[in-house]
């Protein structure tokens, strides 16, 4: 019996070997070898001459290799596309070795081994573990939009069955792990192109090509990266192994994400659309009368007379009074502006006369008079656009920018309008994905030059690699109002986050097809979506409703109570959220964290795309099934506490969590130090004191509390303070470190209420009435044994 089994296993392995040999032979025929003919070490890396081109590997940093492939003569960098923020790097150490089979370039974190006979480029980590293989690369001559150019293609070999692939921006197919999938890297309403691919095998690939591209892994052992237009193959290979390290490399290349004002992390009230000054003022007044926490209110489209003119229509008779009144009520105002101009204004005539339009057609598909799209890649046009916004809005006190339709708008067309037009940079098809970068940069740079007193906040319907440096939050676009669409937003947001883009939100409740406020099923959808939004990086409602109300009191007393509770929880968590925002800026951190970011080698975590960590401590499990009263939850390896009950649970298991309508399943990791502030109606209503420190025992833990002036750029000059906390689980001791740094208006003395979480103690939204210790802190180090 045993002998028969051994023979069966042997036959099975032999068959696998034969099949593998067939595949390799076939692959060699599909992709003929491109052998090395010579090589030389250059100052920044290695230049390898092959039979059909030249491969260059530049050591940008020990964990970043810049790989290009093309003609004999090095082609100049395309600095004009505005993607890379950093081009001057200090020299990195590397070595080059060779033998008759291979040439090897080695840094402290990576090695790249070029097979002499085939030209294949094998990547390995510092322990020589194989990562992936750039097996073949080629440029195929062609013509695009009347330009003679090339298409680019790189084939990577992937053999590990447990390797997951993530990132690539935001897409709406409801897919989390892109292993076995094909994804277009192309801008559309609801789809955002970010060409960063992250593998659970411990590496990332940043595809440095702004034309329309594709990642194709439909045959799961072959990964193709292709670009529509290319003069050369161009990508960056990024070392991990952890996604946080890969994202840090990406942001080093494309730019850091600045901090928003504290107000931006609060609640945003919005709908399609407020029709008048009186309506905006009435909504703000009612929020304050009901004491519902909110910081921001939003004016959507058609507040203008003519698009592009930025002139308030007669329904807003005194815009300055409107803005002043909102500020007096401690609201910040965001206003929607579009990149389109319509005939009938001097702004249109000026832009037209100067040749600042990409196209003067009925673009957008829904304006009978037609409209023209301006060209933000033209510096003069970009400045003109900002000057108009500055005069009409920013100088009057508008706080934030809603840059809508900046893919740019594709409705009414099968393809992005840039594809068949020229822009200032050149052929639009060559730079098809970069429009949102230039558009948001014009506003961000303009505001920074106008004032350093108010931090830039931009809500953008699209983004590209580097948009994060412009103070951009993307949202998931004009999505439907149903549970299927809601579910898809979770994986869309998580892939956007792991693409290196830290700030994202959705239209809570959906946008298109509205939703009937009197329908209990829609009210349930809105509550569930709102619970998810509470733990999104930016927390904002929006949508087209029937009737038109979309405020928290619009959904009936039962729903209102639940919504206000989660809104209150968001504000209690503000010390935690604002401290993580500092980590985003200072440490390249990611706030909305798919499980693979913290449990990369856990196959179950790799394939879980419907739950996530919010910061280091809170496991969030959105409920997206109509009528659900329970929710299947995977608890990764750790010890966990139910946020609502304090029940302690082991990890590495799947549980059925209770999920009545008023309860979003939330779990906190043991070792967490979770700071909760006092209840607030807006984020700066009063000093953030006392702070309740909820400690979840069972592991050692650390937390750093960050504070600054809340809204200006002095933090970039060092005007901020941090307080470190360490929990030693064995000795049951909390150490509060000495305060580091200072800033004007800093609270010199504060109170920490220490709560050791257990069953029915230190749970839920309300402050604990029986803390273990109440500690007065004046900035000096102290130890507490609760």
Write the topology of this structure.
Layout: H1 2-30, E1 36-42, E2 45-50, E3 53-61, E4 64-70, E5 95-98, E6 102-106, E7 110-115, E8 121-125, E9 130-144, E10 147-157, E11 165-170, E12 182-185, E13 192-199, E14 203-207, E15 213-216, E16 222-230, E17 233-239, H2 243-254, E18 267-269, H3 277-290, E19 296-299, H4 319-328, E20 332-337, E21 340-341, H5 346-353, E22 357-361, E23 371-374, H6 379-392, E24 400-403, E25 422-423, E26 426-427, H7 435-450, E27 458-460, E28 472-475, H8 483-498, E29 504-505, H9 520-534, E30 539-540, H10 557-572, H11 574-587, E31 592-594, H12 603-606, E32 612-614, E33 618-620, E34 630-635, E35 639-642, E36 648-650, E37 653-658, E38 666-669, E39 673-676, E40 691-695, E41 701-708, E42 720-728, E43 733-736, E44 740-742, E45 750-756, E46 773-777, E47 782-784
Parallel strand pairs: 18-19, 18-30, 19-20, 20-24, 24-27, 27-28, 28-29, 40-45
Antiparallel strand pairs: 1-2, 2-3, 3-4, 4-17, 5-6, 6-7, 7-8, 8-9, 9-10, 10-16, 11-13, 12-15, 13-14, 14-17, 15-16, 21-23, 22-23, 25-26, 31-32, 32-33, 33-38, 34-37, 35-36, 35-38, 39-40, 41-42, 42-43, 42-44, 43-47, 45-46
């Amino acid at each position: 019996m045993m002998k028969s089994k051994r023979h069966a296993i042997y036959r099975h392995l032999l068959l696998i070997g034969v099949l593998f040999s067939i595949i390799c032979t076939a692959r060699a025929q599909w992709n003929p070898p491109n052998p090395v003919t010579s090589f030389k070490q250059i100052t920044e890396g290695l230049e390898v001459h092959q039979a059909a081109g030249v491969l260059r590997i530049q050591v940008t940093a020990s964990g970043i290799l810049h790989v290009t492939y093309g003609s004999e003569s090095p082609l100049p960098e395309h600095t004009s596309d505005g993607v890379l923020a950093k081009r001057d790097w200090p020299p990195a150490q590397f070595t080059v070795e060779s033998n008759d089979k291979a040439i090897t370039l080695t840094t402290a974190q990576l090695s790249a081994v070029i097979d002499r006979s085939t030209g294949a480029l094998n990547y390995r980590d510092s322990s020589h573990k194989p990562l992936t293989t750039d097996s073949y690369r080629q440029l195929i001559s062609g013509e695009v939009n009347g330009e003679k150019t090339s298409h680019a293609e790189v084939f990577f070999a992937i053999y590990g069955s447990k390797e997951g692939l993530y990132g690539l921006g935001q897409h709406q197919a409801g897919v989390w792990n892109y292993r076995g999938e094909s994804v277009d890297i192309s801008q559309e309403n609801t789809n955002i192109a970010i060409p960063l691919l992250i593998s659970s095998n411990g590496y990332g690939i940043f595809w440095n090509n702004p034309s329309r591209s594709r990642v194709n892994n439909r045959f799961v052992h072959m990964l193709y990266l292709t670009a529509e237009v290319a003069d050369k193959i161009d990508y960056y290979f990024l070392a991990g192994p952890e996604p946080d390290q890969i994202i840090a490399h990406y942001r080093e290349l494309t730019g850091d994400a600045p901090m928003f004002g504290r107000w931006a992390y609060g609640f945003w009230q919005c709908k399609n659309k407020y029709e008048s000054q009186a309506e905006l003022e009435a909504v703000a007044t009612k929020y304050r009368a009901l004491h519902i926490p909110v910081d921001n209110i939003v004016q959507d489209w058609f507040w203008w007379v003519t698009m592009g003119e930025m002139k308030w229509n007669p329904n807003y008779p005194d815009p300055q009074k409107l803005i002043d009144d909102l500020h007096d009520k401690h609201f910040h105002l965001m206003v929607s502006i579009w990149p389109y101009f319509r005939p009938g204004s001097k702004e249109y005539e000026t832009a037209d006369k100067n040749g600042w339009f990409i196209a003067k057609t009925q673009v957008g598909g829904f304006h009978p008079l037609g409209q023209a799209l301006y060209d933000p890649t033209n510096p003069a046009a970009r400045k003109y656009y900002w000057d108009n916004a500055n005069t009409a809005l920013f100088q009057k006190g508008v706080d934030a920018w809603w840059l809508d339709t900046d893919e740019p708008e594709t409705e009414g067309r099968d393809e992005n309008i840039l594809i068949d037009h020229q822009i200032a940079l050149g052929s639009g098809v060559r730079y098809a994905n970069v429009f949102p970068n230039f558009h948001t940069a014009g506003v961000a740079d303009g505001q920074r030059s106008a004032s350093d007193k108010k931090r830039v906040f931009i809500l953008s319907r699209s983004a590209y690699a580097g948009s994060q440096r412009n103070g951009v939050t993307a949202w998931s676009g004009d999505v439907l109002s149903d549970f299927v669409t809601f579910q898809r937003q979770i994986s869309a947001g998580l892939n956007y986050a792991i693409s290196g883009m830290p700030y994202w939100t959705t239209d809570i409740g959906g946008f298109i097809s509205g939703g009937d406020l009197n329908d209990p099923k829609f009210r349930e959808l809105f509550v569930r979506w709102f619970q998810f939004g509470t733990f999104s990086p930016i927390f904002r409602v929006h949508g087209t409703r029937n009737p038109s109300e979309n405020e928290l009191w619009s959904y009936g007393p039962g729903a209102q109570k639940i919504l206000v509770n989660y809104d209150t929880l968001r504000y209690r968590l503000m010390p935690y959220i604002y401290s993580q925002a500092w980590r985003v800026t200072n440490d390249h951190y990611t706030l909305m964290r798919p499980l693979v970011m913290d449990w990369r080698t856990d196959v179950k975590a790799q394939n879980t795309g419907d739950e996530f960590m919010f910061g280091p401590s809170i496991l969030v499990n959105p409920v997206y099934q109509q009528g659900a009263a329970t929710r299947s939850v995977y608890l990764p390896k750790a010890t966990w506490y139910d946020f609502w009950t304090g029940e302690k649970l082991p990890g590495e298991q799947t549980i059925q969590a209770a999920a009545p309508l008023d309860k979003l399943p939330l779990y906190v990791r043991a070792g967490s130090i979770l700071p909760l502030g006092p209840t607030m109606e807006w984020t700066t209503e009063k000093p953030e004191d006392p702070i309740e420190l909820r400690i979840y025992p069972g592991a050692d833990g650390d937390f750093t509390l960050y504070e600054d002036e809340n809204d200006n750029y002095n933090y970039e000059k060092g005007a901020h303070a941090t307080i470190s906390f360490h929990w030693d689980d064995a000795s049951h001791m909390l150490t509060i470190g000495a305060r580091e740094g200072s800033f004007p208006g800093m609270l010199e003395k504060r109170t920490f209420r220490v709560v050791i979480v257990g069953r029915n103690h230190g749970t839920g939204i309300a402050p604990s009435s029986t803390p273990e210790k109440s500690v007065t802190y004046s900035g000096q180090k102290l130890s507490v044994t609760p």
